[in-house]
Amino acid sequence: MACVHVRCWQQTYRGLMSDAVLDDPSLPAARERFWTAALTDERYRENRAAVAEREGELIGIAMSGPPLDAAAVWARQLYVLYVYTADHGTGAGRALLQAVIDPAESAALWVADPNPRAQAFYRKHGFVADGTTQVEDGVREIRMVRDVQAPSPVP
């Protein structure tokens, strides 16, 4: 999972994030520590993680959890969703998203800006930019939220 994370960062953020960060030899070990904690530490027991495979090889990863913002009005936060560039458009991203966030759950995420492909993917799945921005690891990000309305009663 750590290797997929690093490779996807390199594919996705090259030109948006510093090459020094993306090519740092300690990045794989740092991502390995991240995933070890995310998958084993009791603090993250409410997180949901999923992987996508093709022919026995990992091609994508995802993780959601409770929102860190205590004032959040959404049920889940998408923290990680990466699929190798070669596997974009295969349905792996959709499957990963649905594995970690139920389509009936309200949710939020941060996405790099610019990253038109990812933003279009999230819009297709009901997320809209709410006007909130931040800079994380030198990358400008926009927050996108999905507010799921209760179904209307059938007359």
Walk me through the structure.
The chain has 155 residues and is an alpha+beta fold. It has a single domain (2-146), classed as 3-Layer(aba) Sandwich (Aminopeptidase), CATH 3.40.630.30. Helices cover 31% and strands 30% of the residues. The protein has a 6-stranded mixed β-sheet with strand order 1-2-3-4-6-5, sandwiched between helices. Helix 1 crosses helix 3. The protein is globular. 22% of the residues are buried. Residues 150-155 have low confidence and may be disordered.
Mean pLDDT, all residues: 93
Determine the CATH topology.
Answer: Aminopeptidase
Total beta-strand segments: 6
Strand order of the largest sheet: 1-2-3-4-6-5
CATH architecture: 3-Layer(aba) Sandwich
CATH class: Alpha Beta
Task: Estimate percent helicity.
Answer: 25-40%
Supply Rg.
16 Å
Domain N-acetyltransferase: 4-149
Organism: Micromonospora wenchangensis
Protein name: GNAT family N-acetyltransferase
GO molecular function: acyltransferase activity, transferring groups other than amino-acyl groups
Secondary-structure map with pairings?
Layout: H1 2-13, H2 19-22, H3 27-40, E1 48-54, E2 57-65, E3 76-83, H4 92-100, E4 107-112, H5 116-124, E5 128-136, E6 139-146
Parallel strand pairs: 3-4
Antiparallel strand pairs: 1-2, 2-3, 4-6, 5-6
Helix pairs in contact: 1-3
GO molecular function: acyltransferase activity, transferring groups other than amino-acyl groups
InterPro entries: Acyl_CoA_acyltransferase (IPR016181), Bact_Acetyltransf (IPR050832), GNAT_dom (IPR000182)
Domain N-acetyltransferase: 4-149
